[in-house]
Amino acid sequence: MGAGAKHRLLFVDRLLAALVHLRHGATHDVLACWFDVDRSTITRAIGEVRPLLAERGCTVSPGVRLRTLTEVVDHLGASGKTGIIDGTEIRVRRPGRRTGTSSSPARASRTPSRPWCSRTGMAGCCSAARPSPSCADITQARQLGLVKLLANGPAMEILADAGYQGLGAQTGGRVVTPPHRKFKKNAPDWYEEMHERQRKAHSSRRIRVEHGIAHLKNWRALARHLGRREHMSDIV
């Protein structure tokens, strides 16, 4: 505190510049023209405000902010709410040593993250972004310590898709996934109808997490990230 060059922008202006950059993807040069400052001033402001926003966590109700996965599990257990977990990928620029660009989704590099939502569709927590999407959903959930938190935590219900099948047995039934398909071939008609009805019922309950992810992707920085990858976790 007190060291370095004095800020030419008030904190409110620095906050606004950072939010406009994250929401609309405005470049630092454009923001510098808007605020009538140098480009380096905007770069410094965004670099200082971004971690401050990340430390604030997610507001789920007045006076309640969740910052870590442990706080999310404790909040769900205390409030009796149903949680929903799912994964999403964020397009990022390819690493170095490559020439040319490509807009093809098959060739674009991606960074996955794991958002948590309540049944209202409000995001409660997002895990740190990983450098590669090759990690399975259930593997990343185990690496985050979700199994231990749920197995030793209060009774609750967590809705997940088929990528998390297996966590239910490890967490005492707290993680609910779509029903297994018992007949691989030549399934009777009555079973096909029952399985489809159960699958749709589960999907309709967890559709809110898709809405929550879509809301996050309204921020241009999460639709396609063009900056440095080490800032991705703070942005999420």
Q: Helices and strands in order, then pairings?
A:
Elements: H1 11-24, H2 28-35, H3 39-56, E1 58-61, E2 64-66, H4 69-79, E3 82-85, E4 88-92, E5 109-113, E6 115-118, E7 123-126, H5 137-143, H6 146-151, E8 157-159, H7 167-170, E9 175-176, H8 189-205, H9 207-216, H10 220-223, E10 224-225, H11 232-235
Parallel strand pairs: 3-8, 4-10, 8-9
Antiparallel strand pairs: 1-2, 3-6, 4-5, 6-7
Task: Write up this protein.
About 45% of the residues lie in helices and about 15% in strands. It has a five-stranded mixed beta sheet, with helices on both faces. A three-stranded mixed beta sheet has the order 5-4-10. About 5% of the residues have low confidence. It has eleven helices and ten strands. The protein is elongated and about 70 Å long. It is α/β, with parallel strands linked by helices and about 240 residues long. A hairpin with a 2-residue loop joins β1 and β2. It has two domains: about 55 residues; about 180 residues, no CATH class.
